[in-house]
Write a structure and sequence with these properties.
Elements (H helix, E strand, L loop, with lengths): L34 H8 L8 E10 L2 E11 L9 E2 L2 E5 L4 E6 L2 E7 L5 E4 L10 E6 L10 H13 L3 H4 L1 E4 L6 E6 L11 H16 L5 E4 L9 H12 L4 H6 L9 E5 L3 H26 L7 H11 L6 E5 L2 H7 L1 H7 L11 E7 L7 E13 L19 H17 L7 H11 L6 H6 L5 E12 L11 E3 L5 E3 L6 H17 L5 E7 L3 H7 L4 E5 L1 H5 L2 H10 L5 E5 L2 H6 L9 E2 L15 H10 L13 E6 L16 H8 L5
Parallel strand pairs: 7-12, 8-10, 8-11, 11-12, 15-16, 15-19, 18-22, 19-23, 20-21
Antiparallel strand pairs: 1-2, 2-4, 3-4, 5-6, 9-10, 13-14, 14-16, 17-18, 20-23
Helix pairs in contact: 4-5, 5-7, 7-11, 9-10, 10-14, 11-20, 14-19, 17-20
Keywords: Aminopeptidase, Hydrolase, Protease
InterPro entries: Leucine_aapep/pepB, Peptidase_M17_C
Pfam families: Peptidase_M17
Amino acid sequence: MAPDPPSVVAVRRDWLNSPFAPSYSGLNRYLHHEPKEIVQNNNKRLTDSDLRVEVWVTREKGVCMPRSVHITHRSYLRTSLITHGTACTYRADCTSHLAIESQSARSIRTIFLPYQVKAEGNLNSSVYDGIVYVTHSPPESGDHPEPLKKAIQGLAKIDDEAKELGAVVEVALPARRLVYSPTGKINREYHDVRSFSEAAGRGIKRALKAGVKSPLLVLTSHERFKQSEVVTLLGALEALYVPIQFREDVPSKSIKVKELGVWSKDFTKTQEFVNLAKILESGRYVARDIGGGDPERMAPPRVEEYVKEIFAGSPIKIEVISDPNKLDKEYPLFSAVDRAARVIERHRGRIIYLTYEPAGLVTETLFLVGKGVTYDTGGADIKAGGVMAGMSRDKCGSAAVAGFMKVRIVKFGFCITKGMRSFRKLLQIFVSYDFDSKVISALKPKDVKVVAAMSMVRNSIGENCYVADEVITSRSQARVRIGNTDAEGRMIMADVLCYMKELAASSVNPHLLTIATLTGHAVLTVGSGFSILMDNGPAREVDNSRKLRAAAEEYGDMIEISTIRREDMAFHKGKSEGDDVHQSNNLPSSRTSRGHQSPAGFLILASGLDKHSLDSSNPLKYTHIDIAASAGDLPNEPTGAPVIGLVAHFLQGRF
């Protein structure tokens, strides 16, 4: 590797083991440029003392791999929320793409969208080599954009199935290829906006098979589905996701397209669609990475590494509890599950707390607890008969928590004040940072404080594993008798939920949530693709689940609602003298009546939330979300549910 250049750019060699490793062929040329010249060629007024650009890269197998980009200007210290020492730092999230052309840095793009996504105002642009058109209008309709109308109407004359299956046809535009991807009929009361996302995914995949490298996605509006354009774009972005381990192991295939253009009839609205979709996708990207990594790639310590990477330089405060003695003392139920795994260093469990404090007056406080079982063997009650396969996805609850926090920071963490507009212009002298002025003016920290917890553990088998019949005193001082070691998810969340309850007691307008791939019963109840919400009394009093479902389904994040009943509480009451709580029966949830509702009862009892019901002096809102049916099973990619639904409900209107 070339020696470290002067002070303007620092090249680090020590990140070879970073979890991020995409590569770009153009970066090899970077090492042959004088960094000082790169800056000066863009603006000769800048000097080393005024501006510092740190590009951290590594070289592996002859490929230059970017890690992160720091842009520092000493004159704008007071205009950023993020400061380090005496300088104001803006950091591109984790792995970044630095393209070098004619000795000038042209673009920086974050790992979460490692290709450019931009609003396009011209269907005749020569930048693109294919158009993906998603619409609910049949081929013979006259509603199609004028440049596409002739090709699509011609298709209707020769292919009756095109209105259902779509097709690839030639179009008289520079892009030449048109992928027509229809939603099919969506006029019935049971149709929903997912048809747009699904059509976009099919269209992008078909375009890739046709050899398209720079697609232009054409959006259409729908009177009934107000967010159809954003949902369409989210479907396209989902199809372009590359799993984290594939990105790392085969860097040459870490991106599927060079860029994605987005067009609709209203360019201003197109910009808004693009900006919102990129923000939402950043959260889903994180959730997919964590949820989809295999049991070693996303073992608890490596999840900690990943989380620290993605939130480095952000307003997020990170606290990690991994000391076995502290876990034994303060989180005894979690610690019981961790016992077998902690004898292996790389499998040791940990609880990762992520806290966001808004700059303004807090009017609501969210407490999120995610289940993060990196692999579930079932423990002593082993998952036999082939049902263990796929259990690396049992961490998607924690993955969703991290994804939600990522959206929170992308949306609110980088506040551009009036003074920073000058800084943005300064940056654009030598980099195009994918900012839009309208988005910048909206990025203001609002009034919601968020405390999130990722309970990361591996439910292993071994001589030190916990077993049925043990009686463990929880953090809330409830004596819990173990009935089934395969009911570990509720165990690793209960003590953390108790801690959140303690914080909530003195917080402003608190709402506690648990998110977990908890029960097979949920899958049997609602089928694939649906999260299930369950409110306690105080949350039901404010109609939380219905409102959350309505907000989430506008974006295609599908939800069903169940109710916590007295039967669910009674099921988990202690059965023996001295027992306060019975953890589980010894049957799978799929063979247990009310198999997805009763775990919410356990969480309420074991955490002490039963003392904060409607009739208490300090009622606390609590919602349990079972995402076993919506998180995404192998061989499919994780979905990132319910990140978008949570954002739509809790942060909508605070955009």
